[in-house]
Amino acid sequence: MNFPIEAHVNVRAIASSLIREVANAGLGKRDVLPFWFGEPDEVTPQFIRDAATEALDRGETFYTHNYGLPALREALASYVSRLHHAVSADEILVTSSGMSALMLASQALVGRGDRVVAVTPLWPNITSAPRLMGAEIVRVALELRAAADGNPQWSLDLDRLLAALTPATRALYLNAPNNPTGWMIDAAGQQAVLEHCRRHGIWIVADDAYERLYYPETADRQGSLVCAPSFLDLAERDERVLATNTFSKSWLMTGWRLGWLVAPRLLVPEIAKLIEFNTSSAPAFVQYAGLEAVRHGEPVIAHTLARFRRARDFLIGRLRAINGVQAASPPGAMYAFFRIEGMADSLAFCKRMVVEAGLGLAPGAAFGPEGEGFVRWCFAADEQRLADGIERLRHGLRILRGTD
Ligand SMILES: Cc1ncc(COP(=O)(O)O)c(C=O)c1O
Asked: pLDDT tens digits, residue range 177-198?
């Protein structure tokens, strides 16, 4: 009777969060400016909160259908159809967060030994989901190159990605705009990837969490809503494309845990079975809040987009003015992911920044080995706070370089 007490090997293989490790290093320290987590800094708008409390007052406290409230699925179908190609409610499932949508996609599509390709560096949860199911992850790294204007820019070598997508590949996981780099795949790249995956029967799991946090220099689609290109623009109905999304970022709803996915119709009842075993459904009153957000939330997105664009430009400008910092201006999402010359251990660096400068950043290594040498800064914050953070970074760098 001396059996080891241990979780399944797939669980043990997952590392705990390096961002948390940095945050823990700052525990007990009161004056820390935290930019480490990926979270908008504003509270959920009042009209969305009101919808939840009204739903509770009406007694919306019961299970809903595994698929989600019919009204919410309809509203999401018309929202997605406004942004991308036409989808119907029977292609939509409501999930208890974007993370849950990613986990459900992995449970539905991958199993032990399956080859899964991911474009990296990447928010680690995206690859952890298929790894928990036993998949082998093949990473294709973005590169930081000098753009025509001399500034660095993240880019993907498309040929390398296509070469990694062998016929034996089960799925491609692609997040664009990407967390942490903000990198965006262009429509031509998407078309090439889609055609290649079609030819070989490879699933595309597209994480569109930041599609509305997109800052094109010129609005690509005149008069329409700002939205990053998605595989949902190009894919045909019922092909091997599964898109996951979340209410967290667009409508400032991180703590509500609400998301959705768009899937081929034959897959929808299969994933609904999995929802039964995970959460059974998202909470009813949370779904009513989501309904209000989808129906009336465009001004929230417009406000957030304008704010974050200003914050991005401010932060990137300030970072580039620091000696030895290389920062690309991200076309989407809400992070600066920048290199600091001479910094080889991002975890140790971020811990020291918390302790010695009161600055909370996420270590690049948290996003995979390709992220080493970089740090991530979430710029969803007021300018004054960002300016204070920059002062702390300058101070911290002086201490580390011994010039203080
Ligand atoms: C790329 C990406 N996808 C999905 C999510 C999931 O968001 P949530 O689980 O809050 O819906 C996040 C959250 O940070 C993210 O960065």
From this structure: 999 999 999 989 999 999 999 9
Cα separation, 254 vs 39, in Å, equals 7
Cα 60 to Cα 82: distance, rounded to the nearest angstrom:
29
Q: Is 98 in the pocket of ligand 1 (CB under 6 A)?
A: yes
State the distance from the centre of ligand 1 to the C-alpha of 246, rounded, in angstroms: 7
> Does the beta carbon of 97 lie inside 6 Å of ligand 1?
yes
pTM, full prediction: 0.96
- What the block records as the tokens of 318 is 């300030």
Mark whether 114 and 40 lie in a shared domain.
Answer: no
Q: What is the pLDDT of residue 223?
A: 54
Residues 39 and 55 in one domain: no
Give residue 91 CA to ligand 1 midpoint distance, Å. 21
How far does residue 99's CA lie from ligand 1's centre (Å)?
6
Residues 208-236, buried b or exposed e (16+ Cβ, 10 A)?
bbbbbbbbeeeeeeeeeebbbbbbbebbe
User: Quick check: 257 and 97 in contact, CB under 8 A?
Assistant: yes
121 and 202 fall within a common domain: yes
Q: Are 80 and 124 members of one domain? A: yes
Residue 402 lies in a domain: no
| Among 36, 39, 100, 125, residue to substitute to test ligand 1 (most atoms within 8 Å of Cβ) | 125
- pLDDT for the residue numbered 218: 66
User: Between the CA of residue 368 and those of 2, 18, 127, 325, what are the distances in Å?
Assistant: 36, 10, 10, 20
Task: Measure 249 CA to ligand 1 centroid, in angstroms.
Answer: 8
Domain end marker among 240, 273, 296: 296
Mutational test site, ligand 1, from 95, 179, 211, max ligand atoms within 8 Å of CB? 179
Domain that includes residue 14, residue range: 9-44+299-397
- pLDDT digit string (tens) for 153-162? 999 999 999 9
